[in-house]
Amino acid sequence: MNGTVISVSNLVKKFGSFTANDNLNFEVYEGEIFGFLGANGAGKTTAIRILSGLSEPTSGEVMVAGFNVKKQAEQIKRNIGYMCQKFSLYEDLSVRENVMLYGGIYGMKRQLIRERTQRLLKRLNFEEYGNRLISDLPLGLRQKLAFSIAILHEPKIVFLDEPTSGVDPVTRRQFWEMIYETAAGGITVFVTTHYLEEAEYCDRVSIMSEGKIVALDTPAELKKQYMVNSMEEVFIKIARPQKY
Amino acid sequence: MMIQSSGITKKFGVTQALKNISFSVNEGDIFGFIGPDGAGKTTLFRIIATLLLPDEGEMTVMGHDVGTGFKELRKKTGYMPGRFSLYQDLSVEENLNFYATVFGTTVKENYDLIYDIYSHIEPFKKRLAGKLSGGMKQKLALSCALIHRPALLILDEPTTGVDAVSRAEFWDMLKKLRQHNITIITSTPYMDEALRCDRVALIRDGEILTVDQPDKIRDGFSRKLFTVKAPDKYKLINGLKSYPGINAAYPFGDSVHITFKNDVFDTAVYDHLKNMGIHNVTIEETRAGIEDRFLDLMENKEINQQP
């Protein structure tokens, strides 16, 4: 078994009397593609905020990339990457400027940023787009670029929050190929999605419902366990939406 | 005919948002526009809702031109934009009453129409709209769009960002609305929702790729399609892509969908995969889905666009 990059034990997060995360326990391994699923309002975002050092747990032990989220939140932020669908890049900066900016934020040396920028543009066949404004790029390209920037500093783990939402089917698949490559290179990918077909691309999947993890296994095992043919059916069986 | 559109174009600065859009929507249908972000779905819906004029082309809704007939049309159209746009600082009940009054009607008069939807949020009618959960906001927005008993309901991406369970519930609500003789046009980036519609248009980059019943769109996939499975998917995809006899290979859930260059099953592919260390491969012929066809149409478009 590879090393553990995330280890969560008895994680509880309360907002007043509301329990958003109700005693979560799980581990995520090096180079794994881990799908983090759940209905809207199940508590996924709360958990991701804790894992990325943006929010403190009410109780429980959470280690990410070798650091404790309570005591070493700043080190965690330096050792992870994060990308979400809604906000990723500055539209009024060019491709190159965005890369430089994030490299600077991650505290990378100038020379290293320059090298990685070249490598990144080359890998995406983006060389001629370096000076284009983000606002001039189609959504699909932006998402691929945002992902590349999220792993610019070669973090141990990258969090992708609905990275393919609204993206066309071809780009969505190219995006997943980037995810596979990234994981094969040893970076752990922690991903959320509403496309349950994409859950099948993950090594392991957890499903949250009402603050709890109600299932965690490989897609094949989950399908076997619930005696269905797709992750969509697994999801519909167990991820009950919130009651009003 | 509920909507008749021919040759609609719309430009914003240098961006061609819609190119020569032609389609028609039958009365009583659920008609879906399926396509990714940036395809032009919202622009098109704003034109149908008489909120935006096209640069060129003609569109009539219920026999009225969208440009000159807007006063008549707005009385008969319900529009739910993609972004929640009710008054957040009014209560559930106040929002609903407000929309009823604007359209010169009352909640009571049309209660039967919204009952199925509104009854879920009625226990919270004193709550401010801004304090509702996502699912409840959506039910309120739908109730408000229906409160004047429109003949045409326009829903712009009602299920985007919504989980699979809630999406299924939403579609059940739409199915029930059909009993009231309301034509519904909706848009979505989720290809699987096409099967819930009577007719659909696949749309991308401001162009309609095809319009038809979902089953006919699937049947329009002209090649033999195979589904390939193996334990290591990443290796499998790379293995298939490196085989010269394969026309296209796209991952689909736990398998990869492939077509062959000569459209015949080339059994040598097994050996090729084995040589690459990929074992336990199964290949079966399968029926194309909407997404297969969408990918196919996108590919053909790109090939045709090469100079």
How would you describe what is shown here?
The complex is a heterodimer of chains A (244) and B (307). Chain A is of the alpha/beta class and 244 residues long. Chain A has a single domain, classed as P-loop containing nucleotide triphosphate hydrolases (Rossmann fold). Chain A is built from nine helices and ten strands. In chain A, the strands form two sheets. In chain A, strands 6-7-8-3-9-10 form a six-stranded mixed sheet. In chain A, a hairpin with a 2-residue loop joins strand 1 and strand 2. Chain A is globular, with a radius of gyration of 18 Å. Chain B has 307 residues and is an alpha/beta fold. Chain B folds into two domains: 211 residues, Rossmann fold; 63 residues, 2-Layer Sandwich (Alpha-Beta Plaits). Chain B contains ten helices and 14 strands. In chain B, the strands form three sheets. A six-stranded mixed sheet of chain B has the order 6-7-8-3-9-10, sandwiched between helices. A four-stranded antiparallel sheet of chain B has the order 2-1-4-5, with helices on one face. In chain B, helix 3 runs parallel beside helix 5 and helix 4 runs antiparallel to helix 5. The longest helix of chain B has 16 residues. The model of chain B has no long low-confidence stretch (mean pLDDT 93). Classes of the chains: A alpha/beta (244), B alpha/beta (307).
Q: What are the defining features of this structure?
A:
heterodimer, A: 244 residues, alpha/beta, Rossmann fold, six-stranded mixed sheet, 9 helices, 36% helix, B: alpha/beta, Alpha-Beta Plaits, four-stranded antiparallel sheet, 10 helices, elongated
